[in-house]
Design brief:
By secondary structure, the protein is mainly α. The protein contains 4 helices and no strands. 82% of the residues lie in helices and 0% in strands. Helix 1 runs antiparallel to helix 2, helix 1 runs parallel beside helix 3 and helix 3 runs antiparallel to helix 4.
Length: 134
């Protein structure tokens, strides 16, 4: 199968997990027994928001990927880097809320930066491909 047939399916199914996360966040925010505290709630919201927005971005990205004229292997690589970047960046927020401390760096904040670099690499690759194909 083509990468642009499988990767969008992965992104769409991943959006279901973001919906569940929204339900969990709402439940936590509305019940006293499940309060995360301001620091953890802030990172939960950031991770949830980044995941949703970046997965929608990935669907647009995957629509344009075939127009770049890349080989199947390069499409797999670019799409994979993008989706790993989405997971790394949004997952970094969740990791930080679990192991991090307010005002200090953690493995989560490092993962957020790695995710941002992967996203940037995938976006630059697509832009270069689209420019070259034009």
């Amino acid at each position: 199968m083509e990468p642009t047939e499988i990767l969008p399916t992965v992104a769409i199914l991943s959006l279901v997990t973001v919906e569940f996360g929204g339900h969990a966040l709402l439940r936590s925010a509305t019940t006293d027994r499940d309060r995360l505290g301001a620091f953890r709630e802030r990172f939960f919201r950031a991770g949830h928001a980044h995941a949703g927005v970046l997965l929608v971005l990935s669907l647009v990205y995957l629509l344009y990927l075939p127009r770049a004229g890349f080989s199947d292997g390069l499409e797999w690589l670019c799409g994979g880097v993008l989706l790993v970047g989405v997971l790394a960046q949004s997952g970094g927020f969740f990791l930080h809320l679990g192991v991090g401390e307010e005002g200090r760096r953690s493995a989560g904040t490092a993962l957020i930066r790695v995710g941002a670099l992967l996203l940037a690499a995938a976006l630059i690759a697509l832009a270069a491909g689209l420019i070259k194909a034009a």
